[in-house]
Specification:
There is one protein chain. 34% of the residues are buried. The chain has one domain (2-233). It is globular, with a radius of gyration of 18 Å. The longest helix has 16 residues, at 116-131. The strands form 2 sheets. Strands 5-2-1-6-7-8 form a 6-stranded mixed beta sheet. Strands 3-4 form a two-stranded antiparallel sheet. By secondary structure, the chain is α/β, with parallel strands linked by helices. A hairpin with a 2-residue loop joins β3 (42-47) and β4. It is 35% helix and 17% strand. It has helices at residues 14-22, 76-90, 97-108, 116-131, 151-161, 179-183, 212-218, 221-227, and strands at 2-6, 25-28, 42-47, 50-55, 137-139, 166-170, 188-194, 231-233.
Length: 234
């Protein structure tokens, strides 16, 4: 069985969904430390022909808190309305806005009293359903048995707990994980590298690595399914 384990990113880029689509089970790693300035509560959209960051604010908390211990701020509902308006105005002439805006509205119009891990978990599942990805999701906090393990050892422990023998990670994991160490535990390790994907964004030069929102606005579900297969497994 093939599994992937990733932190729950906020409306991530297409490569994240390629990873989900490639495996038999996808583990959302909600039980690790929240890192400020990461992709847990921010991403980028095409605004005024520029890759522009947008953020969900969180309640203030200790640096030591885990992702599932960081909660959306009380300003979420107000920010939510502004973000929805920005998205609608930015992509008003995009070919698939009428199909995608109800999905984005459903994602953002939620109970703001949840933690950011749960919020992203639910968001990822909704987007996968829209695209047609049926990979089962699991929360890492539901399966971790040894809270003392860190990084590679924690990942190996989760893979073994799930009785999997193949682990796939995003290409950035090449600096974190050793194929040799995984092989010694009877696990084959692979890294997924997104190919140079390009699609039409209005009439401007293409800007890559934006939120999945951008991909959905400019591509039909069928085209998105094709993009999911544009990667190299290393």
């Amino acid at each position: 069985m093939k599994v992937a384990i990733m932190q729950p990113y906020f409306l991530p880029y297409i490569g994240y969904f390629q990873l989900i689509n490639n495996v038999d089970k996808f583990v959302v790693c909600d039980n690790v430390q929240y890192i400020k300035e990461g992709w847990i509560n921010r991403n980028k959209l095409l605004i005024n022909n520029t890759a522009t960051k947008f953020t969900l604010s969180l309640k203030k908390g200790s640096r030591d808190l885990k992702i599932n211990e960081r909660y959306l701020s009380e300003r979420f509902e107000e920010e939510n309305k502004r973000l929805l308006k920005t998205i609608e105005m930015t992509y008003t002439k995009a070919p698939y806005i009428s199909e995608v805006m109800p999905l984005i509205s459903e994602i953002l119009n939620c109970d703001y009293k949840v933690n950011i891990g749960e919020f992203n978990y639910n968001s990822l599942k909704k987007i996968c359903k829209y695209i047609g990805i049926d990979t089962p999701f699991i929360m890492a906090s539901d399966i971790v048995k040894n809270n003392e393990l860190k990084c590679q050892e924690m990942v190996i422990d989760m893979v073994k707990t799930l009785n999997a023998d193949i682990y796939v990670n995003a290409i950035g994991g090449t600096e974190l994980y050793s194929k040799k160490d995984f092989k010694e535990r009877s696990i084959d390790l692979y890294f997924i590298k997104t190919n140079d994907i390009e699609y039409k964004q209005f009439k401007n030069a293409f800007i890559p690595n934006l939120s999945i929102i951008d991909v959905l606005m400019f591509n039909s579900k069928e085209q998105v399914k094709e993009l999911l297969n544009q990667y190299t497994l290393l």
